Amino acid sequence: MLCSCGVAIIAILYILFDVNYFVRIIATVMWGRLFEKKKKLFDKTTIYEQQFISLTDNFVRAVVLSRQTVTGLKVPLMDIIAEIEPETRRPEPTKELQLWLESMEESSKNLRKQE
């Protein structure tokens, strides 16, 4: 009796609200939080600088720094880049980039759990 009522309620909810969608969303969020990967800055990270320049007066309107991290890679990223373009070398970080990386590290320290 209880089982058949439960099945009927689930069927009605499924028809009315598409419960499967909500179950999938909840399961995905829980899975992501349970098995969250911690990422740190190391050789699998590349940093790109993009400049938005207006065509009329050649004025730099914005500069964007973006950090891209490769995950699940068995070979070091620099080896892959050297295979594609052998003359490519890693440039020295600019002062702005170094300060940005330091600020990101400080921000991360503040957000981590205090022990």
What does this structure look like?
This protein has 115 residues and is of the alpha+beta class. It has 2 domains: 1-35; 45-109, no CATH class. The chain is 50% helix and 17% strand. It contains 4 helices and 2 strands, in the order ααββαα. Strands 1-2 form a two-stranded antiparallel sheet. A hairpin with a 6-residue loop joins strand 1 (45-53) and strand 2. The longest helix has 17 residues, at 95-111. The N and C termini lie far apart (52 Å). The mean pLDDT is 79.
Q: Which short descriptors sum up this protein?
A:
single chain, 115 residues, alpha+beta, 2 domains, 50% helix
The value of Rg in angstroms is 24 Å
Per the principal axes of the C-alpha atoms, what is the gross shape? elongated
The end-to-end span amounts to: 52 Å
Domain module count: 2
Strand content: 15-25%
**Helix content percent band:** 40-55%
Number of strands: 2
Which spans of ≥5 residues are poorly predicted at pLDDT below 50? none
Largest sheet: 2 strands, antiparallel
Strand order across the largest sheet: 1-2
Task: Count the DSSP helices.
Answer: 4
N-to-C series of helices and strands: HHEEHH
Helix vs. strand class: alpha+beta
